[in-house]
């Protein structure tokens, strides 16, 4: 999507909260749908969706289902402390996981957020070096004000750079011994 498209109502949401921004599952899925709507309305064309793990996996999975496009997974890790809040050394996997005969020519690279932008930028550079005939579109749920890179599409802009508490983070501190079995009638 181009900046001209943004002038036609394809604006990201803007949240000025600082500190922590706590996101529910309902809000999370709503942001993915808003991102999908922006991609569709903006006329973004792509052959596959490359999701950065771990944060981009859920985003990529839902977009893959909505657009009926193959999902490709690129392993990436930068938050490595026990609570997942300190950005450390960025590590990218050296290959992609997919079932496509070939990739491209148009790829949609997705992640949950562009924080510093380092992961998105490194992933884009890796794809450009390894798949030279590809055009790469970038999309995220959240774009922080401190990001060094601006994706093509983002669902929500965060100029105050809050820490985003995503709904799945509850499992980062839970140990297997703390889990309990389901009750018999949980689906009723």
Give a short overview.
The protein is an alpha/beta fold and 188 residues long.
Could you walk me through the main structural features you see in this protein, from its secondary elements to its overall organization?
By secondary structure, the chain is an alpha/beta fold. It has one domain: Rossmann fold, CATH 3.40.50. It contains 4 helices and 9 strands, in the order αββαβαβββαβββ. The strands form 2 sheets. The protein has a 7-stranded mixed beta sheet with strand order 1-8-7-6-3-4-5, sandwiched between helices. Strands 2-9 form a two-stranded parallel ribbon. Strand 4 and strand 5 form a beta hairpin. The longest helix has 17 residues. The N and C termini lie far apart (43 Å). The N terminus is likely disordered.
